[in-house]
Amino acid sequence: MLILTWNEVEDITDCLHAIEDQTERRIEAVVVDADSDDGTIEAIEAARDRMEVPVRLDVADERLPIGEARNRAVGLAGAPNVAFVSADVELHEDWARQALASLEDADMVFSRQVHAPRSWSVGAAARGLRYHFPDEPTDDPLRYASNAAAAYRREVLETFPVDPAVVAVDDLLLAARAARAGHEATYNPAMVAYHHDVADLAGETSKCVREARGWGLNVHELGPMTPVLAWGLALLAVLAVLAGGLLGLGLATVLAVVVLWAPVVRRVPRALGQMPPTALAGGVLVGPFLDLVFLFNYARGLWEALVSRPSADPEGMQR
């Protein structure tokens, strides 16, 4: 179990306790810390003293890009199968056993993530609306490639080390590159990971910026985000209608509202019953703003991909 930390004092103890509670006992935890200064290291040491599962702690002397930290963790691990687990994730007790079973027939396995914020802020609700991992097998496992909770045969990570220059989508690129080389991917919904994820609207906005730009920068490998582009074209069409006075102001306004909220409304059914109604209403209200942030930064990434090669970015630093 490879865990990256940087100022994760609020989450790391629960993360380690969930690893300690695994039914599969042939595991160890390797923690690479990027010079935390909030008590994370002390929390890890305290948890380690109470655990039967071995915990190895490696503390860097500076902040690390996520890719560099992941590669460092892989180098420290000695097992033939390794898993990435985010510090803000709590694994179901059967996660490791399920992962090892899946890796008997596949080279990489992605798990079902359940959005589980510690409190239902507007930002957490907005993330919950965007968050969807199916509770049944899928024919498209690469769509759910997320290193918040994923397991690999070691050879995959040695052949395709994570690029430290990649912003936010390192897991998707790793999975895509490995799959193109013939490595088998699968999705196991019985591997359940509870992800605490973003806590507020600022955090969700920042995540949208990083993810969207990362997708755009790497469109040549990940392919275009067709729904996002289609929505952008629909918005341009609405603006043309408004500017040209092709409809009355009232009808044009209704059309604009329908187009703006269409992606959010599409997500609502799967969120019903998953969060408090007031939080859901707040998430729906701010949804178009976040979708616009995503669209703008996706377009920004696409433009950068056209005019220059992707380079290391401070936004890719471990958070």
Low-confidence stretches: 310-319
Order of helix and strand elements from N to C terminus:
EHEHEHEEHEHEHHEHHHHH
Beta-strand content = 5-15%
Average pLDDT reading: 92
Percentage of residues assigned to helices: 40-55%
Shape, principal axes of CA atoms:
globular
> CATH superfamily assignment of the largest domain?
Spore Coat Polysaccharide Biosynthesis Protein SpsA, Chain A
Straight-line N-to-C gap: 19 Å
Task: Explain how this protein is built.
The structure is a single chain. The protein is an alpha/beta fold. It has two domains: 2-201, Spore Coat Polysaccharide Biosynthesis Protein SpsA, Chain A; 202-316, no CATH class. The chain is 49% helix and 14% strand. It contains twelve helices and eight strands. The strands form two sheets. Strands 4-7-6-8-5 form a five-stranded mixed β-sheet. Strand 1, helix 1 and strand 2 (29-33) form a beta-alpha-beta unit. The protein is globular. The model is unreliable at 310-319 (pLDDT under 50).
Give a concise summary.
With 319 residues, this protein is α/β, with parallel strands linked by helices. It is built from twelve helices and eight strands. The relative contact order is 0.14.
